[in-house]
Design goal:
Residues 1-71 form the HTH merR-type domain. The structure is a single chain. This protein has helices at 6-13, 17-25, 45-58, 62-66, 79-108, 118-129, and strands at residues 4-5, 33-35, 38-41. By secondary structure, the protein is mainly alpha-helical. The chain has a 3-stranded antiparallel sheet. A hairpin with a 2-residue loop joins strand 2 and strand 3. The longest helix has 30 residues, at 79-108. The radius of gyration is 23 Å and the shape is elongated.
Length: 143
Amino acid sequence: MTDLDIAEVAQRAGVPASTLRFYEEKGLIASTGRRGLRRQYDSGVLERLALIALGRTAGFSLDEIARMFAPDGRPRIDRHVLSAKADELDSRIRELGVLRDSLRHAASCPAPSHMECPSFRRLLAAAASGTVAVPRKRAPGAP
C-alpha cells in the first residue's frame, strides 16, 4: 500500500485538509509520517473517514465516534449505541414530520392571517418552548 499525501486524502474524502488535521488532533485518524512538511496517511484512512462521515451524518458527536474505534484503529461499534441512535432518529423524524405538516398547514391555512390560525399558534408555542408538539386533532373543516 502506498501512503497518500494529505491533499490527496482531502480530495478523495471530500473534506478540507484542516478537517484531517483536526481529526488527527482528536485521535480519530493518524498520519504515518511526513514527506517534507506534508502529512502522509495509509490508504486505509479513507475507509475510516467514510465511517466518521457516516457517524456524523447519523448525529454522533466526534467523541462518540472516537469511542467506536479500538486502540488499534479497528471499528468496535456497540450495537446498543446504534440502536439507541436509531431510536433518537425515529423520534426526530416524527418531530420533523409534525413540523412539516404544520408548515404545510400554515402555507394553505384559510385564516385571514397566520397569527389567527390555531395550528400556527401551536407551532409558535412549540418553537418558543424548544419542543415540537404533536398538534391536536381538529374537527373536520376547522382551520
